[in-house]
Design a protein that fits this description.
Blueprint lengths: L1 E6 L3 H10 L7 E7 L2 H11 L3 E5 L7 H10 L5 E6 L4 H9 L4 E4 L4 H48 L6 H10 L7 E8 L2 H7 L2 H19 L6 E6 L2 E7 L6 H16 L3 E5 L9 H13 L1 H4 L4 E3 H8 L8 H11 L3 H15 L5 H21 L13 H6 L4 H40 L7 H8 L3 H12 L3 H18 L5 H7 L5 H12 L3 H9 L4
Parallel strand pairs: 1-2, 1-3, 3-4, 4-5, 9-10
Antiparallel strand pairs: 6-8, 6-9, 7-8
Length: 532
């Protein structure tokens, strides 16, 4: 039932309106009456009626002033004004103030009923609209994560709306991309992953990966996660705070592997401040991720690392020369083939045989020169030295292509072998140093100085080659040395702990049990002197 307030200065008319109209049949009930405009405003606030029936001429404030109050204060009240013949000018003013209707005195009950029913119809329509809006709002809120991801997918794919729409959408989805970077994640050995898990299990793992990423990225408007391609997920993170993105990526790797046994690799873009260039930033991250072939599974590769690789190297001015060269310099044969195919699509259709052969020879020589500038000795590589003679001797375009690709693959594979050997040699030196100095505190900085490398790079290299981080490897060495001491001596536990560089004997006992499965004393009693 809609509530009605009647404001009429003539007592008899007011009482007749209340008693002679069938309010219930119209879906209404009279909840208040007054002969004064000022009091009518007070009743509007206290009774909160849905419909006001008011004479224009009232004591205190006029019906027009009451309508002005309703409109000025945004009250949801429908008004029906009553006026005499001489007051039509007021009625016109009332219409401008959104009055639902007005009727003339003497009041015709049928005319008043029609006006009330008109107000009721308006209220019904507004109520239905409000209910529908509530339902729509619920649907929108329920679909908001999906709509947000769809919007980010469009941006990441290069579909950028105009500036105003972009700003509106980002505000609606509560996204802020002032200073950001992108992490591109892929599951290693994706084919085996698809074979090992059923669809529902994969969905559960994908949700777990999403939660791990967003949890470690932090609860900011900048942190967004999107399933971009079948085996490529994007994590957009805040880059303004100077966060250690490599550290964040490695933490994600560790958590996902430890909790779910899932191996992932991550490529990291450079920073950006322009939301409309999200697609370019995504391509940087994906480009970095493609270089995981060089370092293997569970890699973290940043765009800056790739830039460091090619900085200062001699490359052809043709963009695809540079792209092939970058791939070969890190031993990424898969990427080298891909970029070579793109280069070939530019030159392979040329009718001039000499042009094709000369171009191929030129780009092979560019790669050789770049490798030499990277301090890799070509004399130790099983590579055809007379490139020009080899290419010139080919009789067909297809022969030129296959020969050039074979040369390229040979270069890339052998560069990868040399780089891997170098890395292994460095790691061997690091492990030797740790085995020689385990009895005192050793830092990553100290290790880096022994091989003239950055401490962060040393940490990543150890993890890449051994599967364990620096502190875990050092602890492993110390526990092994402790076992040897207890097997061939009679030192007390605290003495053994001190000799292996752990001054806290309680902590030593905890770490020993974690690695050996028993306490130091039990180890000595059970494994060293079983006859006792």
């Amino acid at each position: 039932m809609y509530k009605v307030l009647i404001a009429e200065d003539e007592h008899m008319i007011r009482k007749a309106l209340i008693s002679q109209m069938d309010w219930a049949a119209m879906g209404c009930v009279v909840t208040g009456e007054t002969d004064n405009g000022t009091r009518a405003i007070g009743l509007l606030l206290s009774l909160k009626p849905d419909i006001l029936i008011s004479d224009i001429q009232l004591e205190g404030k006029s019906g027009i002033e009451v309508c002005q109050y309703i409109q000025g204060n945004g009250l949801s009240v429908k008004t029906v004004l009553i006026t005499g013949f001489g007051e039509l000018s007021y009625a016109k003013a009332a219409i401008k103030l959104d009055a639902t209707d007005f009727i003339l005195k003497p009041i015709d009950p049928a005319e008043l009923e029609a006006a009330v029913r008109k107000a009721v119809a308006q209220l019904d329509a507004e109520t239905a609209l409000a209910e529908e809006m509530v339902k729509l709002q619920a649907v929108v809120e329920e679909s908001l994560p999906l709509l947000k991801e769809r919007f980010l997918l469009q941006l990441a794919g290069g579909s950028v709306p105009d500036r105003n729409e972009l700003v509106q959408n980002m505000s609606f989805f509560n996204i802020r991309l002032d200073h950001y970077a992108v992490l591109a994640l892929e599951i290693d050995d994706y084919g085996s992953y698809l074979d090992a898990y059923r669809p529902l299990e994969r969905q559960a793992l994908e949700l777990a990966l999403r939660e791990q990423c967003l949890g470690l990225a932090g609860p900011t408007k900048q942190s967004c996660y999107v399933d971009f391609e079948p085996n490529c997920r994007l994590l957009v993170v805040d880059h303004e705070r100077g966060a250690d993105l490599i550290g964040m990526a490695e933490a994600i790797q560790e958590n996902v592997f430890d909790k779910y046994g899932m191996s992932i690799s991550i490529g990291i873009s450079g920073g950006s401040t322009d939301p409309s260039r999200l697609n370019e930033t995504v391509e940087e991250a994906k480009g970095a991720l493609r270089h995981k072939f060089y370092s293997g599974s569970r890699s973290v590769v940043s765009h800056a690392d790739i830039q460091d690789i090619v900085r200062g190297k001699t490359v052809s001015p043709f963009p695809y020369y540079a792209a092939v060269t970058r791939a070969v310099l890190v031993g990424n044969t898969e990427e080298a083939r891909y970029q070579f195919h793109k280069l070939w699509s530019m030159i392979g259709h040329e009718a001039d045989e000499a042009y094709i052969k000369n171009t191929v020879v030129e780009f092979i020589i560019v790669i050789q020169t770049s490798i030499q500038s990277g301090h890799i000795n070509l004399e130790h590589m099983s590579f055809e030295s007379n490139v020009y003679g080899l290419i010139a001797s080919q009789s067909t375009v297809q022969d030129v292509r296959s020969t050039a690709e074979a040369l390229l693959v040979t270069l890339s594979d052998e560069v990868r072998t040399i780089i891997s050997s170098r890395n292994r040699s460095v790691v061997d030196r690091l492990l030797q140093y740790m085995n020689e100095h385990y009895g005192r505190e050793i830092t990553l900085k100290e290790l880096g100085e022994t091989v003239y490398m950055n401490p962060k790079y040393v940490s990543r290299l150890l993890k890449q080659e051994t599967g364990e981080n620096f502190s875990a490897m050092l602890t492993k060495i110390r526990i092994q040395k402790a076992k040897e001491m207890m097997e061939h001596g009679d030192l007390k536990v605290y003495e053994v702990a001190q000799k292996v560089g752990i001054n806290d004997s309680r902590y030593f006992s905890q770490m020993f049990k974690k690695h050996a499965g028993v306490t130091p004393l039990d180890y000595r009693n059970r494994y060293v002197s079983p006859e006792k």
